[in-house]
Design a protein that fits this description.
Strand content: 25-35%
Distance between the termini: 31 Å
Shape: globular
Bound molecules: ligand PZK
Length: about 280
């Protein structure tokens, strides 16, 4: 990616980049790229427009939760024009070192853990659940943020308390469940199931705010979105997240070495699915 004049690159994740500016010490520029990752690999080629679509969706969700403090800077005018549609200028927070995952449905790593132990992150669940089942109520299933390159580790609530303290852990759980339930209601009214999602929070000590919603929220990179009509009709595979890319890769790659380049068809269908999700939710 080209350098941003006046900004210093500070950190890159798989699909996003962080920049800082010396004259804005309290803020960070988060730039979403068009890169897509699956199975811990960044794939080729990029998905045109993905960064802008996911940034639009995050901003829309932030606006749906007026009672939840978020990290968007009060004045975002310093964002450079060249990345304006895929960047957020955010308050520099002290990030809480756990991923705040909420599951309304059982799948992915939660399903795997349940299958082997009957519980997820220390929460016992009814017996006999199947992959994709709705849970009796949404559950908070935190994960420890492993260093880049390592897998995040599901943890129980006691471990979360050890990592962030009891007061913060209790507040993170309450905020996560509250936002998930609000979002799930909004999405369900538009025919979208939010099966699970991951939030990140930080503290703004200077502002006296312990629990500030950060990162990107409720995007296709942080959540599983399923088609409610298909789900209710017993067809559980219809999603607007990265599942289509995962399925394509599983069919075209044995998982060894470098993944193959995505076909033009899967690139276009993935782009179209992201656009369709935003249309469904925000129109
Ligand atoms: C922060 N990340 C994840 C990694 C990205 C993003 N408000 C904040 N203040 C300070 N740090 C962060 C945030 C937020 N959100 C976010 N890591 C730190 C991350 C790589 C690229 F764009």
């Amino acid at each position: 990616m080209g350098a941003l004049a006046d900004w210093t690159h500070s950190y890159s994740g798989k699909v996003r980049d962080l920049y800082t500016r010396d004259d804005l010490p309290g803020e960070v520029l988060m730039v979403a790229s068009d890169r897509i990752s699956a199975f811990d690999h960044v794939l080729e080629p990029a998905i045109p427009g993905k960064g802008a679509l996911l940034t639009r969706l995050s901003r829309w969700w932030f606006a749906q939760f007026p009672d939840m403090p978020n990290h968007l800077a009060a004045d975002e005018s310093p964002i450079p024009d060249e990345v304006a549609d895929r960047a957020m200028l955010v308050r520099r927070l002290t990030m809480h070192p756990i991923e705040c995952v909420v599951r309304g449905y059982l799948t992915g790593s939660g399903w795997k853990e349940y299958r082997s132990t009957g519980a997820v992150c220390g929460i016992s669940l009814p017996t006999g659940l199947r992959d994709g089942d709705r849970l009796p109520e949404p559950i908070f299933t935190p994960a420890w943020k492993a260093p880049m390159g390592e897998h995040d580790e599901n943890i129980d609530f006691d471990r979360a308390v050890e990592l962030v303290g009891a007061d913060v852990a209790v507040a993170l759980r309450a905020a996560s469940l509250r936002i998930y339930m609000q979002a799930a209601d909004i999405a369900e009214a538009r025919g979208v199931i939010i099966a699970d999602t991951k939030f990140e929070f930080g503290a703004d000590e200077a502002a006296g705010e312990d629990i500030v919603l950060a990162d990107e929220v409720l995007t296709s990179d942080s959540s599983r979105f399923w088609d409610k009509a298909a789900y209710d009709a017993g067809r559980r595979g219809v999603s607007w997240d990265k599942q289509g890319v995962r399925d394509w890769l599983s069919a075209h790659w044995d998982g060894e070495g470098t993944p193959p380049a995505l076909s033009p068809e899967i690139v276009e269908s993935t782009r179209a699915r992201y656009a369709e999700l935003i249309e469904r939710l925000t129109a």
